[in-house]
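Recap from last week: sequence in, structure out.
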Amino acid sequence: MRNGVFIAGTGTDVGKTVLTRALARALSRRGLRIAAVKPAESGVARRPGERYPTDAAALRAAAGSTAADDDVCAYLLDEPVSPHLAAARQGIHIDAARIEALLERASAAHDLVLVEASGGLLVPLSDELLYADLIAKTGLPLVVVAPNALGAINATLLTLEAARARGIELLGAVLNGSPRSDFGNADAIARFGRTRILGLYPTVTPPEDDALADAAEAHLNLDVIAEFARR
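Predicted structure tokens:
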């Protein structure tokens, strides 16, 4: 598949789900059939008799999809820890082939697949597989999400180096949040990381899908991502 883009962060809680929701809704409003998926979700909430993937469900809603859980998230994991550990504690082994099959199904039925990773590139999915390895196996390009805060330069440059070391195509970086000070993040990341800044995404309150999409249209270079859609 080539009609997909991975979205990974420089760490946990940097705004990947919010950014993926924003992209899904904004690109859907351009007339594209969007699948927004999350291969593995840890800390999945429970409803009576079932697990409920909060992040994956939010992605599905933002994309305007009615897909089943199995077509949005390959692995629903109970504990809010690294996927490899959560899976091991449930007696599950996360298999790249199962995730790739989910992505292929999504690719065949949609114009563009947005794939949200868990945490950063070097988060393990199993004892043999890092997220970066999975992304490299798929051949999909990568958008890096970093908080627009102190420390973003180092974390983002390390993420870019890890991606390049595995031959992952880089589309660019998004800096997320409204900083109280100018830390020079965008200029330094673009210069030292030899990558483009796809936008400075503001804090959106309340974070409703259409408001997130409005901010994406105003502040992100959506055309770079839309280029990967099947026409």
